[in-house]
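Technical note accompanying the year-one report. For the benefit of new consortium partners, we illustrate the data format agreed upon in the data management plan: each record pairs a sequence with a C-alpha cell string. No post-processing was applied to the example shown here.
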Amino acid sequence: MSVKPLEDRVLVKPAEAETKTASGIYLPETVKEKPVRGTIVATGPGKLMENGKRAQMSVRKGDTVVYGKYSGTEVEIKGVKHLIIRESELLGVIEG
C-alpha cells in the first residue's frame, strides 16, 4: 500500500522520539515528547490556483522538515506511523 498526497499536502515520517536526555538519563515511554521533525516521504502535485495552474511545492521527497507539535493527520502505513500535513503547516526545512 502506498499513499500519494493530494493538492499541497505532504506525507512525513516523524523522527524517532528521544530516548535519552543530553545528560544521559533514559526517558520512560510515558514522558517522551511527540516529535516535531521528520522526513518527507511523498508530496502532492501542488495547490491548484484560480488560473488553473498548480503552485510549485517548496519541499520535495527526502527533505527533513520541522512542523507544529499537533499538525497534520496521523496515518499508519504498513505498521509505521506517518503524518499527512499541508505544506503551509510546515515551519521550516532543516539543511545540512
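Partners are asked to follow this layout when depositing records. The chain has a mean pLDDT of 85.
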